[in-house]
Amino acid sequence: MELLNYKRFGQGQPLIILHGFLGSLDNWLTLGKRFAEDYDVILVDQRNHGKSFHSNDWGYDEMTTDLEHLIETLNLENPILLGHSMGGKTVMQYAAFYPQQIDKLIVADIGPKAYPVHHDQILNGLKSIPVGEISSRQEADDLLSDYVKEESTRVFLLKNLKRTSEGFDWKMNLPVLSEKIEEVGKALSHHLPIETDTLFIRGGSSNYIPDKDWEDIEEIFPNAQLETIEKTGHWLHAENPDKFYDLVTNFLA
Questions:
Q1: Could you give the 3-state DSSP secondary structure of residue 221?
Q2: Catalytic-residue membership of 85
């Protein structure tokens, strides 16, 4: 079985961080290095993302198995798991199946429920870029801007571009991610209850964890608490990294 690509720094209790859909471990380098002042930080590329392997099999069952293989291979004891969005679903499912193997859980701006597919516009924009023919990142940005108006979102998405000897290519497995996009929105496949101490952090301007969902979340996670970072959207850790860092370190203290 292939091992996920990861970067590791710091020392102490292991803290594993998983990115969201169309992201990579590079999104977490700055915060990861701050956490590494107190923890053994392992930043991970999930399958079909970043520098990790590509596979036609992709969903939360596979991503949970990948995480278990990483923890076992690195012989990590009592790790803390932190996941954003898709990565949050992965760590929640891991906690459901392997509760005795982890210490605490941090879930960034995602709940355990099913979410409707809403990445169609982004995926269509990415697929519109002829990566083997473009000559610059600016050219890719110009093409993507017809589909994605927010510059910050385009910058995030185009971090998936890599230079090759022929020009450019995608790091992520765009064909499989597009074909199986329904997988990313699926509800948590869980065993009730998940008693791991869990911190949910949501963006105040995000609609991923509305107030009405909290009662259902607490039924699954009876030892959970919820914090809100005001005036931030779904990428809350990038929009307000200082507040995010403070909330996580206070929870882990």
A1: coil
A2: yes
Q: Output the six-digit token pair for 11.
A: 């020392």
Q: Which of 19, 84, 234, 237 is an active site residue?
A: 234
Select which of 84, 85, 206, 237 is catalytic: 85
- With helix as H, strand as E and coil as C, how does 116-165 read? CCCCHHHHHHHHCCCCCCCCCHHHHHHHHCCCCCCHHHHHHHHHHEEEEC
Confidence of residue 190 (pLDDT cuts 50, 70, 90): confident
Q: What is the pTM of this model?
A: 0.96
C-alpha dihedral (214, 220, 226, 231), degrees to nearest 10: -60
Q: Can 55 be counted among the known catalytic residues?
A: no
Q: Show the tokens assigned to 173.
A: 């497995």
CA–CA separation, 161 and 131 (whole Å): 8
What pLDDT, in 10s, does the model give residues 149-162? 999 899 999 999 99
Q: Which residue do the tokens 């803290």 mark?
A: 15
- Whether the Cβ atoms of residue 45 and residue 5 lie closer than 8 Å to each other: yes
Give 83's contacts (C-beta < 8 A, 6+ positions apart): 17, 18, 20, 89, 90, 91, 92, 106, 107, 108, 110
Average pLDDT, the chain: 96
Kindly state the DSSP code that residue 46 receives in the 8-state scheme: P
Buried b (16+ CB within 10 A) or exposed e, 192-223: eebebbbbbbbbeebebbeeebeeebbebbee
